[in-house]
Design a protein that fits this description.
By secondary structure, the protein is mainly α. It has one domain. The chain has 15 helices and four strands. A two-stranded antiparallel ribbon has the order 1-4. It has a two-stranded antiparallel sheet with strand order 2-3. Helix 2 packs antiparallel against helix 12, helix 2 crosses helix 13 and helix 5 runs parallel beside helix 10. It is globular, with a radius of gyration of 21 Å.
Length: 391
Protein backbone atom coordinates (compact mmCIF):
# COMPACT_ATOMS: atom_id res chain seq x y z
CA UNK A 1 0.00 0.00 0.00
CA UNK A 2 1.31 3.45 -0.95
CA UNK A 3 2.43 5.48 2.12
CA UNK A 4 0.62 8.72 2.79
CA UNK A 5 2.10 10.32 5.95
CA UNK A 6 -0.26 13.32 5.83
CA UNK A 7 -3.28 11.03 5.94
CA UNK A 8 -1.52 8.96 8.59
CA UNK A 9 -1.17 12.02 10.83
CA UNK A 10 -4.89 12.76 10.38
CA UNK A 11 -5.76 9.20 11.42
CA UNK A 12 -3.55 9.57 14.49
CA UNK A 13 -5.23 12.85 15.36
CA UNK A 14 -8.60 11.10 15.16
CA UNK A 15 -7.22 8.42 17.46
CA UNK A 16 -6.04 11.09 19.88
CA UNK A 17 -9.48 12.71 19.75
CA UNK A 18 -11.10 9.39 20.65
CA UNK A 19 -8.62 8.79 23.47
CA UNK A 20 -9.05 12.29 24.82
CA UNK A 21 -12.85 12.02 24.70
CA UNK A 22 -13.65 8.55 25.98
CA UNK A 23 -14.07 9.56 29.62
CA UNK A 24 -16.80 12.13 28.86
CA UNK A 25 -19.65 9.55 28.65
CA UNK A 26 -18.64 8.24 32.08
CA UNK A 27 -19.90 11.53 33.48
CA UNK A 28 -23.40 10.29 32.71
CA UNK A 29 -23.02 7.19 34.89
CA UNK A 30 -24.99 7.52 38.15
CA UNK A 31 -24.68 5.59 41.38
CA UNK A 32 -21.85 3.24 40.34
CA UNK A 33 -18.42 2.95 41.89
CA UNK A 34 -15.35 3.45 39.73
CA UNK A 35 -14.52 -0.25 39.62
CA UNK A 36 -18.01 -1.10 38.35
CA UNK A 37 -18.25 1.33 35.48
CA UNK A 38 -14.59 0.86 34.55
CA UNK A 39 -15.04 -2.90 34.14
CA UNK A 40 -18.29 -2.57 32.19
CA UNK A 41 -16.71 -0.03 29.86
CA UNK A 42 -13.62 -2.21 29.62
CA UNK A 43 -15.61 -5.19 28.39
CA UNK A 44 -16.62 -3.07 25.40
CA UNK A 45 -13.12 -1.54 25.02
CA UNK A 46 -11.02 -4.68 25.31
CA UNK A 47 -13.33 -7.53 24.26
CA UNK A 48 -16.48 -6.64 22.30
CA UNK A 49 -15.25 -3.81 20.05
CA UNK A 50 -11.96 -5.50 19.00
CA UNK A 51 -13.69 -8.75 18.04
CA UNK A 52 -16.66 -7.06 16.36
CA UNK A 53 -14.72 -4.65 14.14
CA UNK A 54 -12.00 -7.15 13.29
CA UNK A 55 -14.69 -9.67 12.31
CA UNK A 56 -16.42 -7.14 10.07
CA UNK A 57 -13.36 -5.60 8.39
CA UNK A 58 -10.85 -8.46 8.08
CA UNK A 59 -10.94 -11.81 6.32
CA UNK A 60 -11.06 -15.18 8.09
CA UNK A 61 -10.32 -13.76 11.52
CA UNK A 62 -10.49 -17.08 13.35
CA UNK A 63 -8.32 -18.72 10.70
CA UNK A 64 -5.72 -15.97 11.02
CA UNK A 65 -5.56 -16.17 14.82
CA UNK A 66 -5.48 -19.98 14.85
CA UNK A 67 -2.77 -19.92 12.19
CA UNK A 68 -0.58 -17.49 14.17
CA UNK A 69 2.29 -18.98 16.12
CA UNK A 70 1.91 -19.29 19.88
CA UNK A 71 5.06 -17.20 20.25
CA UNK A 72 3.50 -14.16 18.54
CA UNK A 73 0.19 -14.43 20.39
CA UNK A 74 1.99 -14.93 23.69
CA UNK A 75 4.09 -11.78 23.41
CA UNK A 76 1.16 -9.69 22.19
CA UNK A 77 -0.76 -10.83 25.27
CA UNK A 78 2.14 -10.34 27.71
CA UNK A 79 2.89 -6.83 26.47
CA UNK A 80 -0.81 -6.01 26.82
CA UNK A 81 -0.69 -7.36 30.38
CA UNK A 82 2.31 -5.17 31.20
CA UNK A 83 0.60 -2.17 29.62
CA UNK A 84 -2.31 -2.76 32.00
CA UNK A 85 0.08 -2.65 34.96
CA UNK A 86 1.39 0.68 33.69
CA UNK A 87 -2.15 2.01 33.66
CA UNK A 88 -2.86 0.96 37.21
CA UNK A 89 0.40 2.37 38.60
CA UNK A 90 -0.41 5.68 36.92
CA UNK A 91 -2.78 6.38 39.82
CA UNK A 92 0.10 6.14 42.30
CA UNK A 93 2.11 8.58 40.20
CA UNK A 94 -0.70 11.12 40.52
CA UNK A 95 -0.88 10.45 44.25
CA UNK A 96 2.79 11.31 44.82
CA UNK A 97 3.45 13.94 42.13
CA UNK A 98 0.08 15.50 41.36
CA UNK A 99 -1.79 15.33 38.07
CA UNK A 100 0.21 17.80 35.98
CA UNK A 101 3.77 16.81 36.90
CA UNK A 102 2.92 13.11 37.01
CA UNK A 103 1.13 13.24 33.64
CA UNK A 104 4.08 15.00 32.00
CA UNK A 105 6.65 12.48 33.27
CA UNK A 106 4.58 9.39 32.42
CA UNK A 107 3.50 10.60 28.99
CA UNK A 108 7.04 11.70 28.15
CA UNK A 109 8.55 8.36 29.14
CA UNK A 110 5.77 6.47 27.41
CA UNK A 111 6.29 8.44 24.20
CA UNK A 112 10.07 8.02 24.26
CA UNK A 113 10.20 4.31 25.17
CA UNK A 114 7.23 3.34 23.00
CA UNK A 115 8.71 5.07 19.95
CA UNK A 116 12.44 4.41 20.17
CA UNK A 117 12.66 0.89 21.60
CA UNK A 118 11.20 -1.00 18.58
CA UNK A 119 13.83 0.24 16.07
CA UNK A 120 16.58 -0.18 18.69
CA UNK A 121 15.45 -3.75 19.41
CA UNK A 122 15.26 -4.52 15.69
CA UNK A 123 18.79 -3.19 15.11
CA UNK A 124 17.57 -0.44 12.76
CA UNK A 125 18.16 2.62 14.91
CA UNK A 126 21.68 3.51 13.76
CA UNK A 127 21.32 2.70 10.06
CA UNK A 128 17.69 3.62 9.35
CA UNK A 129 17.11 6.40 11.89
CA UNK A 130 20.40 8.14 12.72
CA UNK A 131 21.81 7.33 9.29
CA UNK A 132 19.12 9.00 7.19
CA UNK A 133 17.82 12.56 6.85
CA UNK A 134 14.22 11.47 7.24
CA UNK A 135 15.11 9.47 10.35
CA UNK A 136 16.90 12.43 11.94
CA UNK A 137 13.93 14.71 11.22
CA UNK A 138 11.65 12.16 12.91
CA UNK A 139 13.98 12.14 15.92
CA UNK A 140 13.74 15.94 15.98
CA UNK A 141 9.96 15.62 15.98
CA UNK A 142 10.13 13.18 18.90
CA UNK A 143 12.35 15.61 20.84
CA UNK A 144 9.93 18.46 20.10
CA UNK A 145 7.04 16.28 21.29
CA UNK A 146 8.81 15.60 24.60
CA UNK A 147 9.46 19.33 24.99
CA UNK A 148 5.78 20.04 24.33
CA UNK A 149 4.69 17.50 26.95
CA UNK A 150 7.12 19.08 29.43
CA UNK A 151 5.76 22.59 28.74
CA UNK A 152 2.17 21.36 29.07
CA UNK A 153 3.09 19.65 32.33
CA UNK A 154 4.71 22.83 33.65
CA UNK A 155 1.56 24.73 32.69
CA UNK A 156 -0.37 22.30 34.88
CA UNK A 157 2.05 22.89 37.75
CA UNK A 158 1.48 26.62 37.40
CA UNK A 159 -2.27 26.02 37.38
CA UNK A 160 -2.02 24.04 40.64
CA UNK A 161 0.09 26.79 42.21
CA UNK A 162 -2.59 29.35 41.37
CA UNK A 163 -5.20 27.34 43.29
CA UNK A 164 -6.23 28.40 46.80
CA UNK A 165 -3.80 27.09 49.41
CA UNK A 166 -6.29 24.58 50.84
CA UNK A 167 -7.13 23.12 47.45
CA UNK A 168 -3.47 22.91 46.49
CA UNK A 169 -2.58 21.08 49.70
CA UNK A 170 -5.44 18.62 49.18
CA UNK A 171 -4.33 17.93 45.60
CA UNK A 172 -0.78 16.97 46.50
CA UNK A 173 -0.99 16.20 50.22
CA UNK A 174 1.07 13.03 49.74
CA UNK A 175 3.68 14.65 47.50
CA UNK A 176 6.89 12.61 47.44
CA UNK A 177 9.29 13.35 44.61
CA UNK A 178 11.46 10.25 45.09
CA UNK A 179 8.60 7.77 45.32
CA UNK A 180 6.64 9.58 42.63
CA UNK A 181 9.51 9.59 40.16
CA UNK A 182 10.23 5.88 40.66
CA UNK A 183 6.57 4.96 40.18
CA UNK A 184 6.32 7.33 37.19
CA UNK A 185 9.25 5.54 35.52
CA UNK A 186 7.54 2.19 36.09
CA UNK A 187 4.22 3.51 34.79
CA UNK A 188 5.74 5.19 31.74
CA UNK A 189 7.81 2.17 30.70
CA UNK A 190 4.97 -0.31 31.31
CA UNK A 191 2.47 1.90 29.44
CA UNK A 192 4.83 1.92 26.46
CA UNK A 193 4.46 -1.86 26.28
CA UNK A 194 1.33 -1.36 24.18
CA UNK A 195 3.57 -0.23 21.34
CA UNK A 196 5.72 -3.34 21.85
CA UNK A 197 2.63 -5.52 21.68
CA UNK A 198 1.63 -3.99 18.36
CA UNK A 199 5.16 -4.57 17.03
CA UNK A 200 5.08 -8.18 18.25
CA UNK A 201 1.96 -8.62 16.16
CA UNK A 202 3.70 -8.04 12.83
CA UNK A 203 3.32 -11.76 11.86
CA UNK A 204 -0.43 -11.45 12.47
CA UNK A 205 -0.57 -8.42 10.18
CA UNK A 206 1.23 -10.29 7.42
CA UNK A 207 -1.01 -13.33 7.80
CA UNK A 208 -4.28 -11.42 7.70
CA UNK A 209 -3.18 -9.62 4.51
CA UNK A 210 -2.29 -13.01 3.03
CA UNK A 211 -5.85 -14.12 3.81
CA UNK A 212 -7.24 -11.23 1.76
CA UNK A 213 -7.60 -8.40 4.31
CA UNK A 214 -7.07 -4.90 2.95
CA UNK A 215 -3.76 -3.54 4.30
CA UNK A 216 -5.58 -0.61 5.91
CA UNK A 217 -7.19 -3.03 8.40
CA UNK A 218 -4.23 -5.33 8.97
CA UNK A 219 -3.64 -4.11 12.53
CA UNK A 220 -7.13 -4.94 13.82
CA UNK A 221 -6.50 -8.65 14.55
CA UNK A 222 -3.40 -7.71 16.55
CA UNK A 223 -5.51 -5.63 18.94
CA UNK A 224 -7.40 -8.74 20.06
CA UNK A 225 -4.55 -10.46 21.98
CA UNK A 226 -2.96 -7.18 23.11
CA UNK A 227 -6.20 -5.85 24.56
CA UNK A 228 -6.98 -9.24 26.08
CA UNK A 229 -3.79 -8.83 28.11
CA UNK A 230 -4.90 -5.38 29.24
CA UNK A 231 -8.33 -6.73 30.08
CA UNK A 232 -6.79 -9.40 32.30
CA UNK A 233 -4.93 -6.86 34.44
CA UNK A 234 -7.91 -4.54 34.77
CA UNK A 235 -10.37 -7.39 35.37
CA UNK A 236 -8.32 -8.73 38.29
CA UNK A 237 -8.03 -5.29 39.86
CA UNK A 238 -11.64 -4.16 39.41
CA UNK A 239 -13.09 -7.44 40.66
CA UNK A 240 -10.75 -7.22 43.65
CA UNK A 241 -12.16 -3.77 44.37
CA UNK A 242 -15.72 -5.05 43.89
CA UNK A 243 -15.08 -7.67 46.55
CA UNK A 244 -13.16 -5.40 48.91
CA UNK A 245 -15.60 -2.50 48.63
CA UNK A 246 -18.69 -4.74 48.44
CA UNK A 247 -19.83 -3.12 45.21
CA UNK A 248 -20.42 -6.24 43.11
CA UNK A 249 -24.18 -5.85 43.47
CA UNK A 250 -24.09 -2.64 41.45
CA UNK A 251 -24.06 -4.55 38.15
CA UNK A 252 -27.61 -5.81 38.66
CA UNK A 253 -29.35 -3.81 41.38
CA UNK A 254 -31.51 -0.76 40.73
CA UNK A 255 -30.69 0.79 44.10
CA UNK A 256 -27.42 1.44 45.92
CA UNK A 257 -26.82 2.66 49.49
CA UNK A 258 -25.23 6.05 50.07
CA UNK A 259 -24.00 7.74 53.24
CA UNK A 260 -25.64 10.72 54.82
CA UNK A 261 -22.35 12.60 54.50
CA UNK A 262 -22.35 11.91 50.75
CA UNK A 263 -26.00 12.35 49.70
CA UNK A 264 -25.18 12.79 46.02
CA UNK A 265 -23.69 9.35 45.63
CA UNK A 266 -20.30 8.61 44.09
CA UNK A 267 -18.44 11.73 43.09
CA UNK A 268 -16.77 12.29 39.69
CA UNK A 269 -13.22 10.92 39.52
CA UNK A 270 -10.44 12.61 37.59
CA UNK A 271 -9.72 10.56 34.49
CA UNK A 272 -6.94 10.63 31.94
CA UNK A 273 -6.76 9.55 28.35
CA UNK A 274 -3.82 7.29 29.02
CA UNK A 275 -5.15 5.12 31.80
CA UNK A 276 -8.46 6.20 33.22
CA UNK A 277 -9.25 7.53 36.69
CA UNK A 278 -6.19 8.72 38.57
CA UNK A 279 -7.44 7.37 41.89
CA UNK A 280 -7.96 3.86 40.58
CA UNK A 281 -5.26 2.41 42.82
CA UNK A 282 -6.27 4.17 46.01
CA UNK A 283 -9.97 3.34 46.15
CA UNK A 284 -10.89 2.51 49.74
CA UNK A 285 -13.87 1.21 51.67
CA UNK A 286 -16.15 4.07 52.87
CA UNK A 287 -16.15 4.45 56.64
CA UNK A 288 -19.44 6.36 56.93
CA UNK A 289 -22.63 4.67 58.13
CA UNK A 290 -24.93 3.97 55.17
CA UNK A 291 -28.49 5.08 55.82
CA UNK A 292 -30.09 5.88 52.48
CA UNK A 293 -30.48 4.40 49.01
CA UNK A 294 -30.70 6.02 45.59
CA UNK A 295 -32.21 4.75 42.38
CA UNK A 296 -29.67 3.66 39.78
CA UNK A 297 -30.52 3.97 36.06
CA UNK A 298 -29.08 0.60 35.04
CA UNK A 299 -29.92 0.81 31.33
CA UNK A 300 -28.46 4.29 30.84
CA UNK A 301 -25.40 3.35 32.89
CA UNK A 302 -24.69 0.40 30.63
CA UNK A 303 -25.27 2.54 27.53
CA UNK A 304 -22.92 5.29 28.75
CA UNK A 305 -20.28 2.70 29.62
CA UNK A 306 -20.67 1.07 26.21
CA UNK A 307 -20.26 4.45 24.50
CA UNK A 308 -17.18 5.24 26.60
CA UNK A 309 -15.68 1.81 25.98
CA UNK A 310 -16.16 1.87 22.22
CA UNK A 311 -14.82 5.44 22.05
CA UNK A 312 -11.73 4.32 23.94
CA UNK A 313 -11.19 1.45 21.51
CA UNK A 314 -11.47 3.79 18.51
CA UNK A 315 -8.14 5.40 19.45
CA UNK A 316 -6.35 2.21 18.44
CA UNK A 317 -8.71 1.54 15.56
CA UNK A 318 -7.50 4.80 14.02
CA UNK A 319 -3.97 4.18 15.29
CA UNK A 320 -3.65 0.97 13.28
CA UNK A 321 -4.98 2.78 10.22
CA UNK A 322 -2.51 5.64 10.66
CA UNK A 323 0.36 3.23 11.15
CA UNK A 324 -0.25 1.72 7.70
CA UNK A 325 0.17 5.16 6.11
CA UNK A 326 3.43 6.20 7.78
CA UNK A 327 5.72 4.15 5.56
CA UNK A 328 9.05 2.70 6.65
CA UNK A 329 9.13 4.76 9.86
CA UNK A 330 5.80 3.62 11.24
CA UNK A 331 7.40 3.37 14.71
CA UNK A 332 6.96 7.16 14.85
CA UNK A 333 3.21 6.61 15.06
CA UNK A 334 3.46 6.18 18.83
CA UNK A 335 4.84 9.68 19.38
CA UNK A 336 2.10 11.23 17.23
CA UNK A 337 -0.45 9.24 19.20
CA UNK A 338 0.89 10.45 22.56
CA UNK A 339 1.01 14.06 21.35
CA UNK A 340 -2.55 13.83 20.06
CA UNK A 341 -3.78 12.43 23.38
CA UNK A 342 -2.28 15.35 25.31
CA UNK A 343 -3.67 17.86 22.79
CA UNK A 344 -7.26 16.64 22.85
CA UNK A 345 -7.31 15.82 26.57
CA UNK A 346 -6.20 19.37 27.27
CA UNK A 347 -8.83 20.81 24.93
CA UNK A 348 -11.50 18.80 26.75
CA UNK A 349 -10.14 20.11 30.03
CA UNK A 350 -10.56 23.66 28.75
CA UNK A 351 -14.08 22.93 27.45
CA UNK A 352 -15.09 21.45 30.80
CA UNK A 353 -13.69 24.51 32.66
CA UNK A 354 -10.99 22.55 34.48
CA UNK A 355 -8.62 25.48 33.92
CA UNK A 356 -11.00 28.08 35.33
CA UNK A 357 -9.14 30.35 37.72
CA UNK A 358 -5.70 29.46 36.38
CA UNK A 359 -3.14 32.24 36.12
CA UNK A 360 -2.29 33.99 32.86
CA UNK A 361 1.14 32.39 32.93
CA UNK A 362 -0.44 28.94 33.12
CA UNK A 363 -2.64 29.69 30.12
CA UNK A 364 0.27 31.04 28.09
CA UNK A 365 2.33 27.96 28.87
CA UNK A 366 -0.61 25.73 27.98
CA UNK A 367 -1.08 27.37 24.58
CA UNK A 368 2.66 27.18 23.95
CA UNK A 369 2.71 23.49 24.90
CA UNK A 370 -0.20 22.70 22.57
CA UNK A 371 1.44 24.60 19.71
CA UNK A 372 4.70 22.69 20.23
CA UNK A 373 2.84 19.36 20.29
CA UNK A 374 0.97 20.14 17.08
CA UNK A 375 4.25 21.18 15.50
CA UNK A 376 5.88 17.90 16.58
CA UNK A 377 3.26 15.85 14.74
CA UNK A 378 3.82 17.90 11.59
CA UNK A 379 7.61 17.48 11.85
CA UNK A 380 7.27 13.72 12.23
CA UNK A 381 4.84 13.60 9.34
CA UNK A 382 7.30 15.53 7.18
CA UNK A 383 10.10 13.13 8.10
CA UNK A 384 7.94 10.22 7.01
CA UNK A 385 7.10 12.06 3.80
CA UNK A 386 10.81 12.44 2.99
CA UNK A 387 11.19 8.70 3.53
CA UNK A 388 8.56 8.02 0.85
CA UNK A 389 10.66 10.01 -1.67
CA UNK A 390 13.57 7.61 -1.11
CA UNK A 391 11.52 4.53 -1.87
Amino acid sequence: MTPNPALGVVFHWLGGLASGSFYVPYRGVKGWSWETYWLVGGVFSWIIAPWLLASLLTKDLLGVLSGTSFHSLFWCYIFGLLWGIGGLTFGLTMRYLGLSLGMAIVMGLCAAFGTLMPPIFNGEFVTEVLGTTSGRIILLGIAVCLMGIAVAGYAGVQKERSMPAGTQQEAIKEFNLRKGFLVAVLSGVMSACFAYGLAAGDPIKALTVAHGTHPLWRGLPVLIPVLLGGFTTNFIWTVTLNIRNRTGHEYVTGEVPVSVTDPCGPQPIEETALTGPTSSVITRVPTEVLRETIRVPLLSNYLFCALAGVTWYMQFFFYTMGETKMGAYNFSSWTIHMASIVIFSTLWGLALHEWRGASKLAFRLLILGLAILIGSTLIIGYGNYLATLRS
